[in-house]
Amino acid sequence: MADLDFPPHSPRLGEAFYQTLLESTRAIPWCIDWKTLAFTYIGPQIEALLGWPQDSWKSVNDWAERMHPDDRDWAVDYCVSQSKAGTDHEADYRALTRDGQYVWVRDVVHVIRNEQGEVESLVGFMFDITERKKVDEKLSELQKELEELSFKDGLTGVGNRRMLDSVLELEWSNARRNRQPLSIIMFDIDYFKQYNDGYGHLQGDECLKQVAKILSKGATRARDFFARYGGEEFMLVLPETDNESAIKVAERCQQLIFKAQIPHAYSPAGQLVTLSMGLATATPAQRDSIQALIKTADSRLYRAKQSGRNSLISAG
């Protein structure tokens, strides 16, 4: 490996000083001749990081081949294009170690030009950023978890009101644009106050979680969306679903609750947990609003509760 072509320096500071300075840092210095694309220097620290001997770095081909296949194309293309343009740049990628592992590396590149302004060489430093990447990935995972939590109901784990409002707006717009029906079903656990008073709030929370888990099975298609509307009320959003099909979904949900046989000794409607349901369907026109659809479903839910509960109102 040829010696690095150091810049002019004070007579008091010899080349050995600069060599020692470069090789004592954890960053790995390197230099490439642009005309031949050959390494004219790379620091001995490279062997400690990647395991490849210092004198095995002959040309940019060695650099490219010792890169993760998923990073190679974009990293090489980017670095070459920036170098041709004479632009200083940096790139993060996974470098292959001699024992077959990968290390995250950041290459910081400075383009050296001759007196005519032509690219003459590339000088850079390679940094091990593996630990930083691990921290970044962990923070990204935590951020994703926080985002998911912000759209989930803390008790039941199903979608919360914030997510429900977003989904309703989106599906309403889709239904209006595509002239497709949109149905929503509102559920209310019958006599839930009596359940809480009789069994206690802890058991009441368990009941809410159990009912939510059962009703979420009504969302059988990818775009069906189930959420907690508030208190003991839930909502199922059914895109591209007409009233007749939505009735079948509601009836299936009612059957699932019945099969679960959740005891409710304090219910005037029977000895099991039951549901009141209000269903509304619309193929929205330009001036229609999602609030009107929700109001219709809520009104029908209220009528189902007033008419003896454990029932579904889907029209009128």
Automatic annotation (TrEMBL):
Domain PAS: 14-73
UniProt GO molecular function: diguanylate cyclase activity
Ranges where the GGDEF domain occurs: 180-316
Catalytic reactions on record: 2 GTP = 3',3'-c-di-GMP + 2 diphosphate
Extent of the signal sequence: none
UniProt xrefs under InterPro entries: Diguanylate_Cyclase, GGDEF_dom, Nucleotide_cyclase, PAC, PAS, PAS-assoc_C, PAS-like_dom_sf, PAS_fold_3
Superkingdom as given in the UniProt entry: Bacteria
Cofactor(s) for this UniProt protein: Mg(2+)
EC number(s) stated in the UniProt entry for this protein: 2.7.7.65
GO cellular component: plasma membrane
An individual GO BP term: negative regulation of bacterial-type flagellum-dependent cell motility
Domain PAC: 89-141
A Pfam family assignment: GGDEF
Protein name: diguanylate cyclase
